[in-house]
Specification:
By secondary structure, the protein is mainly alpha-helical. It has one domain. It is about 75% helix and about 0% strand. Helix 4 (about 120-125) packs across helix 5 (about 140-175). The chain starts with a helix and ends with a helix.
């Protein structure tokens, strides 16, 4: 720049205005070029930083979805098992207590329901913050944005089943079934209550309309949940595969 200024001063002194303008334009060109280079370097740095953030998002999401696939596999197996148990329970309706085997009584007493704990920390972090701006793949971004709706459907259906078990089935079971039946037979400390305690009324339970309706409702809702879980697993797997492709 100092060279340009010296040459410009000499040109002015010598009266060569045309040459002066050329040097001035050269000076401006170098300044603009320097600004553009700095701008480009800054832009490349931003792209690099965004790539790092995007990769971290993809890794955390993939790990979360991979965990959910395993959890869903276990849940699907449990839903199938619960469906069979509930169907078998309905076959006992109309039988007397003496007609029931110990295995049948055990099936009636032990209600199998366990909440499914799906992870969604990474997903929630993306959906409730501005991290979507770092996702370059629009198709993947759309899948990530739609996934919480599928999770909510799964959770709401599971809550329906939980309400049936806690608020309808358990109260009627407690009305007719004595917990004496679940006490260990080998323990003689419970002999007194076995002799004088209130006995279970399995016939009354099995003929109770609320009990029958609760079991049927749980069976239908469990079958519905099984379909929802299988659909959620499919979408979870698709999303996990696409994330893995982006990371390769």
């Amino acid at each position: 720049m100092k060279v340009f200024r010296n040459l410009r001063r000499k040109q002015l002194l010598s009266g060569k205005v045309k040459n002066h303008l050329l040097y001035a334009l050269g000076e401006i060109f170098l300044i603009v070029l320097g600004i553009l280079i700095a701008w480009k370097i800054n832009d490349l740095n931003e792209v690099r930083k965004n790539k790092i953030v995007q990769e971290k998002i993809y890794v955390s999401l993939y790990e979360e979805l991979h965990t959910n696939l395993n959890v869903l596999d276990t849940s699907i197996m449990q839903y199938n098992k619960n469906t069979i148990t509930l169907q078998n329970t309905l076959k006992y309706v109309g039988l007397h207590g003496n007609d029931l085997t110990e295995g049948a009584k055990d099936t009636i007493i032990k209600i199998n329901f366990k909440n499914t704990n799906l992870r969604k920390e990474a997903l929630s972090s993306v959906n409730i913050t501005d991290k979507f701006q770092f996702l370059e793949n629009d198709t993947l971004a759309d899948l990530i944005a739609e996934y919480p709706t599928e999770l909510k459907l799964f959770e709401e259906q599971e809550l329906k089943i939980r309400n049936i078990v806690d608020n309808r089935l358990k109260p009627v079971l407690e009305e007719y079934i004595s917990l004496i039946d679940v006490l260990p037979e080998a323990n003689h400390n419970f002999n007194q209550i076995r002799v004088y305690g209130q006995k279970s009324n399995y016939r009354g339970l099995l003929n109770n309309k609320e009990y029958q309706n609760s079991v049927i409702d749980q069976l239908l809702q469990t079958k519905n949940q099984l379909n929802i879980a299988m659909n959620l697993r499919k979408k979870t797997q698709i999303l996990a595969i696409k994330l893995k492709q982006e990371l390769e």
